[in-house]
Specification:
279 residues; alpha/beta; 12-stranded mixed β-sheet; 20% strand
């Protein structure tokens, strides 16, 4: 029987967002789209016996979706799957309501700036200070929290400060190379920066095939950081395909965030679409 890679769907439930980040790729989409509660139910119903164990909800910004509560209840209570949410954490009131009902297992918060007037490279949003305070509010819940920052030439100081903030508050930090980059100089600077942070904070770097050649940062026996180098740069498409199966807000099943190539599970036989994309 064919299996979903790592048993995980990464589902963009909407391309809508309450920020306008200049670099946003909306999980490979350019036009507005959204999935409904019935769409999610249809997808999961036809995937449940294919090794599915977890779902990651992304966007856009998933917390602005009008059916986010119902979606989380469906994923957790009907299908019994682990649930993660990628968010900019502006709508913390919505997230706290989900956490109060024990509907979320993991949260990844995206930031660009440690002390920015706006937390990300966007003309609208909340300040870094507000988002950091929101992150600390999550500490009272039994949920895994990680901060996600994309490395570039201008934000090394921001990442260093956020690194120290996360270490002090026992929050995992994920530092990402631009996944689309194939720039050798940029890639080498990213790798040098990773080793610099590891030396500075006495962190052991570990990598293996099960982690898709990415680097885990271990301190006192616990993972405190993750570094994701560009698989696009290394042309490791086959490795990337084994990370998870992406589902776009327009209903496309696809492997790659760069484009919309794939199969629409809403416009075709859902079961056959899933099995075909897994070939």
């Amino acid at each position: 029987m064919k299996k979903i890679p790592r048993g995980e769907y990464r589902i963009s439930i909407t391309t809508g967002c309450n920020m306008k980040c200049v670099y946003c790729h909306n999980e490979g989409q350019s036009n507005f789209a959204t999935l409904s509660l019935d769409d999610i139910d249809l997808l999961l119903k036809n995937s449940y016996d294919l090794g599915l164990t977890s779902v990651r909800l992304t966007g856009g910004e998933p917390l602005i979706h009008p059916q986010i509560k119902e979606m989380c209840e469906l994923i957790k209570n009907k299908y019994g799957l682990k649930l993660g949410i990628n968010t900019n954490l502006i709508k913390i009131d919505v997230l706290q309501e989900l956490l109060d009902k024990n509907l979320v297992d993991r949260i990844v918060v995206g930031l660009d700036y440690f002390d920015g007037k706006i937390s990300k490279n966007s003309p609208v949003g909340k300040s870094s200070s507000e988002i950091k305070n929101n992150i600390l509010k999550l500490k009272k819940y039994p949920v895994k929290v990680a901060v996600d920052m994309v490395y570039n030439k201008q934000n090394r100081d921001d990442i260093e400060k956020m690194f120290e903030f996360c270490l002090a508050n026992k929050i995992e930090i994920k530092v990402l190379e631009d996944i689309f980059s194939k720039d050798e100089i940029y890639h080498n600077k990213f790798m040098d920066f990773m080793h610099y942070l590891a030396r500075k904070h006495d962190i052991e770097l570990i990598t293996n095939k099960e982690e898709f050649d990415q680097y885990r940062g271990i301190k006192n026996g616990e993972r405190v950081a993750s570094f994701f180098n560009s698989l696009c740069y290394e042309n490791k498409c086959d490795l990337c395909k084994n990370m998870h199966l992406r589902v776009s807000a327009s209903g496309m099943l696809h492997w790659c965030a760069i484009n919309d190539d794939g199969i629409n599970f809403k416009e075709n036989d859902t079961r056959e679409s899933i099995l075909k994309i897994l070939d």
